[in-house]
Amino acid sequence: MFQRLDLREFDTSFTFAGRAIPAREGENLAAAILRADIKAFRSTPRSGAPRGPYCMMGVCFECLVTVDGEPNRQACLETVHGGMVVEPQAGAAEINR
Amino acid sequence: MTAPFDVAIIGAGPAGMAAAVMARKQGLSCVVFDEAGRPGGQIYRAVTERPERDRQDILGPDYYAGLDLVEAFQRSGAEHRAGTMVWSIAEGEIHWRSRSGSGVTFARRIVAAAGAMERPFPLRGWTLPGVMTAGAAQILLKSAGLVEDDIVFVGCGPLLYLVAAQYCRAGHPPRLVIETTPRRNLGAALPHLPRALLAARYLFKGLGLIRELRAAGVRIERGVEQVELEGEDAIRGVRWRSGGRWQRADTGRVALHQGVVPNVNLAMALRCRHLWDERQRCWRPALDEWNRSSQPWLWIAGDEAGIAGAVSARLSGAIAALDIARDLGAIDERERNRAGTPLRAALGRDRAVRPFLETLYRPSDVFVVPQADDVIICRCEEVTRGEIARVVKEGAAGPNQAKGFLRCGMGPCQGRMCGHTVTETMSALSGKGQEEIGYFRQRMPIKPITTGEIAASAPFDGAGA
Description:
The complex is a heterodimer of chains A (97) and B (465). With 97 residues, chain A is mostly beta strands. Chain A contains 1 helix and 8 strands; from the N terminus they run βββαβββββ. Chain A has one domain: 2Fe-2S iron-sulphur cluster binding domain, sarcosine oxidase, alpha subunit, N-terminal domain (Ubiquitin-like (UB roll)). In chain A, strands 2, 3, 4, 5, 6, 7 and 8 form a 7-stranded mixed β-sheet that branches. In chain A, 39% of the residues are buried. Chain B is globular. Chains A and B meet through strand 1, helix 1 and strand 5 of A and strand 8, helix 5 and strand 9 of B. Strand 1 of chain A pairs antiparallel with strand 9 (146-148) of chain B. Chain A: It holds the Pfam family Fer2_4.
């Protein structure tokens, strides 16, 4: 499990799959989810296998989540805002009609 | 339409920042696009932030060496478009997307400094949640202050040792380091040692890292010939074979690394000529001595031009910007040469260590080309080694036919995570060289975007034609 070297207090929270996750405003979203001991962020479109962040730098697209209803967001490139609603992405994103 | 910038730079790492500083010094107008919120690239990521600046004892002086460059960049007068992803480039125009919308920016010359990524490490189980790259573990340490108390490092190369040592300094020595460097590499590398002594600093740094791991009591398994990662829904353990004997350890986190390769998607999509670099085992763009690519309006600097590290990246960025200043007529050839000669000499000295390092840490064939049929090569589309082997047998000549049959390289990462493995695997299976096998044919957009974003970025100002 990830341990924190930065011991500043959390000043906000958001939800991932309905679970409240404490965080600091403006921090990296993928890091905040990983710190909550969550490893799988999405499942694949082909087999449904679970996946989690691999590269943390925007290359691998394994950390895809839905942020406030918008699918296909790379959690490693997003920052945390208080109250944001993050959902794991199950398979391919649905097209908004 | 607004007046174009003289120079647009893609990437705000050491090469991009140095190119911007030099371009401004030569009086050129300059815009820099970067996906990250703050300048620094991966190597100097979050270097300007507190409390990261208080972690000097963990991250080491080479990390903080980026601080003066970031500050020079911020003072340079270059326009910094942070948090902005470039998804397409053509001569004179850059199409981008940011949180606030999408658009197009015009520029007379372009520098691509998109850096490097870690070489794919296709092991059985490498797609399990909890498996990441050593670079990812370092990003979590640098930018979020997170360390995993139960981590196993697997692979080879300087970054693997650096991150493991940084973990020791943070008071969380890794559980285990599984070293996949083939034993024979050292003998092959020794002839390059005398030249490497010109940049001996790097050698001492490397030896120092290994000493740190020993002093922290980290268990290091050497000469490992096979590795498998175990788990159902997440990583549970790692198995490895050395000297014919299998061993196993439980772990909830694995960090993989076997070197870095240039980020090729942008330059490949622009049809820049590329070569296969056999010692680095990767594709790199063909460039002239001032880093100009085969597209006369595009220069490529930093690790995107071939892996050489942060110090060389900085020098090559400045060299590219000088040549652009000459190309645009801001300085003449004599002035460019006068300013550029010492930079190129410094570049030669800094790179002196590369042949030794590249030979010593050249990844083994068995880790670059998966040996078992069930190992996933394309993570996005879950294409296995067995499926690639089947289409090679059926006569697929290269990655593009494999892509047509199997969809490998067609997922959201656009081949970044499998491209090098597909080239290497098809080469190993067919007996043809990597250059002959080739790479996926890249096309714009080089990042997934929506049709709405494409429409919003059309290069017209609404007046109609």
